[in-house]
Amino acid sequence: MPGNYWYVDAATGATVASGNTGADWANAISKLDDLLDSTVLGAADNEKVDPGDWVFVRANSSETTPDTYSGATSFTFRGTPGVPVKVVGVVAGTTNTGASVVKGDYSPQSGDQPRIEFTGSNVLTIAGGSVDFSGIHFDMAYRIYHGIIAHTTSWTDCFMELGDYFLALNAGFYTVLNNCTVVFSGTNLNFHQSYHGDFFMNGGSVAVAANSTTYIVFSGQHGKVEFNGVDFSSITTLGAFSGSGDNQKHITVRNCKFDTAKPTIPIASATSKPTGFVKLIGCSSGTSKGNTGSYQEYEYEDSWGYVDHDETIVRTGGATDGANGSHSIMLLPKVNLTMESTYAAVVSPWMRVWVAGGSAITLTVYITNDTADLNEDDIWCEWFTPAADDGSDHDHNYTENTANDNARLVASSTIITDDSSTWVTDNTHKQKFSITVTPGYEGWASARVHFAKVYAASPAIVHVDPLIEVT
User: Which residues on adjacent β-strands are paired with residue 139?
Assistant: First the structure.
C-alpha cells in the first residue's frame, strides 16, 4: 500500500518557506527539490517523504510553466530498493487527491506531461535512495547523473531530452528505463555507465536531434546492460554498441529495431577485460523477415572473437528458418587472443533438437572452414542430452586430463572427423562432431561449438550448421 501523498505543481504551487506543506493541491509545492531538500524543509520535515510515499507532479497546459533549475541540483530520495519513493506525473488540471488522483496518459510525448527543465551546463543528480519516476518530461540541456549507491532507479513512460550523456556512475546501482523516449541533442550522444551496476532499457526509443555518428557506450567495470525491444531506427548513423575503458560489461541488445545500417559491436581486448561481451539477438530493420534490410539473427563479440549469422556459406539440407532460408553460424577468433586447449574460445550459441527417449541415437553437428583441417584441441563440441536419472548428461568431443581432479583439455593432434556434405560456396575442409547416446527421457538435446585455435594472423573462419542431425 502507498504511504503518504505529496503534491507538486510548478504553476500553482508555492515554496515551503512561504508556508505550503505539500499535503494537498491547495498547499502544493512549486519545486520538487523544495519538497525533498532537507536544508529547506528542516530535518524534522524531511522525514515526511518516506520510503513508499507518492509524490504527484501536476502538468500544466502545454507545459508552459516547467519546474526549472538554472544550477546543478540534487534530488535526494529516501526510498529503499524494495520500497522506493514514487514520483508520478498527473494530467493538467487534476484536483483530486490521494488514491483517486488522475494519473497522466504516460505515453511519452503525448499530451501535457509535467516538465522538469535544467538550463545550461547544469547536472541533475539523482541521489540518496531508491526512486521510481512515471510520466515525467525531463528537459535537460546537459545531463542526468545517477549517483545512487546500492539502490534502484526506474523511469517509466518518461520523455527524456538529454543534451549530453545519460550518466550512471556509482557502485551497486540498478537502473531501468521502461517505455521511455530518449532524445540526445548534444555532441556526446551516449549512454554512459561506470563502476559496478546494471542498466536495463525495455521498450521505448532512442533518437538524436541531428544524425552524426552515435555510439552506445558503457565504460567502467563489471555490470549487466540490456536493451530489449528498443527502437533505434531513427538513428541513421548508429556506430556501435561497445564497452570501453577498463570494462567487463555484459551488453545484450535483444529484439531491437535499427535503421538499415546495422551497428557494429566492438569491445576492448582480452588482456585486461577477458569477461566482457556485446551480443545482438533477433534485431531487425523492421522489414519482414527475409526482405532486404532485415537481419533477425545472432551476433556476438567478446575478448576472444566474433560470432555472426551467415546466409552465404550454408550446408545443403542444413538449417533453414523458412523465411531467410538456409543459414549458418560463423565463428571468427581474434588474432593471438584465443588459446588452444583452453576455454579462451569463440563459442557458438546453443543449438537444440528434440529427441525421443529409451533408444540409442547419434547426434551430429557439421562444420566447415577454408584453411585447414582442425584438431580436437582447436575446436570441439559440448553436448547436453536427457539422462536416465531425469537429469542431463554432459559430454564433449575432446580429450580431457582429469589428473588431480583438475579437468582440462590436453593438447591433441587428433583430427576432427572428415565429412563429405555439400556446402554452398563450398569450403574445402568439411568436418563433423558426432556422439551416440541413449536419452533417458524425451526432451531437448543441446550442443555448442568452441573454437580456440590461436592464429598469429588471418584466422580461419569456421561455419557451423545449427541443425543438429539425429539418426
Answer: 117, 161
Q: How confident is the model at residue 291 (pLDDT cuts 50, 70, 90)?
A: very low
Strand-strand pairing, 123-128 and 73-77: parallel
C-alpha span between 171 and 221 (Å, rounded): 9
- In single-letter form, the type of residue at position 344 comes to A
Q: Which pTM does this prediction carry?
A: 0.77
Instruction: Please tell me the chain's helix, strand, coil percentages from 3-state DSSP, rounded to the nearest 5.
Output: 5, 45, 50
| C-alpha torsion angle, residues 374, 375, 378, 383 (rounded to 10) | 100
pLDDT number for residue 300:
75
In 3D space, the residue among 112, 119, 133 whose CA is nearest the CA of residue 32 turns out to be 133
175-200: string of b/e by CB count within 10 Å (b at 16+)? bbbbbbbbbbebeebbbbbbbbbbbb
Angle, alpha carbons 38-39-45 (nearest 5°): 40
At residue 438, the 3 state secondary structure works out as coil
In this prediction, residue 236 has a pLDDT band, given cuts at 50, 70 and 90, of confident
Q: What is the pLDDT of residue 150?
A: 64
Residue that is written with C-alpha cell 588471418 in the block:
458
Give the mean pLDDT of the chain. Answer: 78
In the chain, what's the furthest Cα-to-Cα distance?
A: 86
Cell numbers for 254, please give them: 535483444
Q: Which of 214-228, 286-300, 359-373 has the highest mean pLDDT?
A: 359-373
DSSP conformation letters of 363-422: EEEEEEESS---BTTTEEEEEEEE-TTSSEEEEESS-EE-GGG--EE----PBPPB----
Question: Rounded distance, CA 213 to CA 239, Å?
Answer: 6
Identity of the residue numbered 318:
G
| Spatial separation of the C-alpha atoms in residues 153 and 87, rounded to whole Å | 11
Cα 325 to its chain centre, rounded Å, is 28
- Give the Cα separation of 81 and 180 in Å (integer): 21
What is the residue-wise DSSP string for 100-127? G--B---STTSS---EEEE-SS-EEEEE
351-366 burial, b for 16+ CB within 10 Å, e for fewer? bebebeeeeebebbbb
